Amino acid sequence: MKHICILLLIVFSVNATAQNKTIPRDTTFTFHSAYNKIKNVYPVAQIVTENLPDGVVEHRDLVYATLKDTPYGDRDLHMDLFRPEGSKKLPALILIHGGGWSSGDKSMEIPLAQQIAARGYVTITVEYQLSPEALYPAAVHNIKAALRWTRAHATEYDIDPEKIAISGSSAGGQLAALIGLTPGVEKFEGNQGYNKDSTTVQAIIVVDGSMNFLAPLSLNKPRNRNSADVIWLNGFYHEKPQVWKEASPIFYAGKNAPPMLFLNSGFPRFHSGQDELIGILNQHSIYNEVHTFPVKVHPFWLFYPWFEPTVELMSNFLDRTLKK
Asked: 290-296: which pairs have CB atoms within 8 A and are 24 or more residues apart?
């Protein structure tokens, strides 16, 4: 009996240690760190802040999945949901933040989510596991679970489950395209809840995100062990070529791809592989749009004067594809 009690005490202590362990955070990408990089070249730039429009209601930090027995205990994943007042069934847009798969957080997409919600959409900003906590494909599994949660709760939040779009900025754009182009692909689905619901989307928005890790603009850029993609994919291309290809959205584009919108900065390397992907969409007569902001500001959507035209372009595209 004494030995059993000691064993139970050891097990409890291990679990308690895991549950008290702090999730590692990379705080290098924030509104202010991005602003400090551009303020001298673009003094007109101003940081966008949250501003809940009249007639829009919000639901903060909804838990869409709980990951059991992680190194940090049971891990809740959260989302923020915004929608116009009323009970009318509306299309939805899921928004994925950027930060090199290692930094940033869902709050960085809230200004976009709030303003697009005011234009007649349910908008959802999603937390996902970043590379200091979990490497590829954990983030893909997380966001697929968020997409299934959205369909499973469509009645509760008056969402049209047949009209769901996904968007992402920078690394979030790569994730949005990969998720949007791989409905039902088993290696990406994960098992984090609501597995009977579909991960099909009806439109994809990519904001300055890479579509092909193997494209010359991406593959040939200087790297070291601390490069964001090397960390997230757990190795250089020459070490894990199949993983780098597997994580590239372009290789899943085909006749069943949904309409796509691409919003670009003046840095071509951030949208590597996009021209080839558009060629595939055009080959199959799939509707797509491309708009470029001719400024050397990668996270342009975080700042005025580029924020408002970003909202307009995204909303207009959604109107054309989800409200037709």
From this structure: 290/261, 290/262, 290/264, 291/261, 291/262, 291/263, 291/264, 292/263, 292/264, 292/265, 292/266, 293/263, 293/264, 293/265, 293/266, 294/266, 295/42, 295/265, 295/266, 296/41, 296/265, 296/266, 296/267
